[in-house]
Amino acid sequence: MGQIFIAALKEETPNLKDFHYSGVGKINATIKIMELISKFQPNEIINYGTAGSTKQNLSGLVECTKFVQRDMDATGLGFEKYQTPFDK
């Protein structure tokens, strides 16, 4: 299989076909994607869904180039808040 399309919820892909659904959250997405990789060995995985942004007036598909882990707090290990340890 060449490509796999995944989204958290069916409601995010109205009228689109051939999607897999993981449920909400990074852990659910990781588990489902690992299952799909094991089963289909795809060349590419396209994650379609919604995410927050501080920019107004965004619409359509947006290619993300920077991610902020707003639930990441490793300050006790000497990292900045929202910084994923050892991630550039």
What does this structure look like?
By secondary structure, the chain is α/β, with parallel strands linked by helices. The chain contains 1 helix and 3 strands, in the order E-E-H-E. It has a 3-stranded parallel sheet with strand order 2-1-3, covered by helices on one side. The longest helix is centred in the middle third of the chain and has 15 residues, at 26-40. The radius of gyration is 15 Å and the shape is globular. The mean pLDDT is 85.
What topology, given as strand order, has the largest sheet? 2-1-3
Give the helix proportion (percent range). 10-25%
Number of helices: 1
Major sheet = 3 strands, parallel
For the terminal residues, how far apart are their CA atoms?
A: 31 Å
Q: Structural class of the secondary elements?
A: alpha/beta
Whole-number radius of gyration? Answer: 15 Å
Strand content: 5-15%
Shape: globular
List SSEs in N-to-C order: EEHE
Return residue spans where pLDDT drops below 50 for at least 5 consecutive residues.
none
The residue-averaged pLDDT reads: 85
> Got a strand count?
3
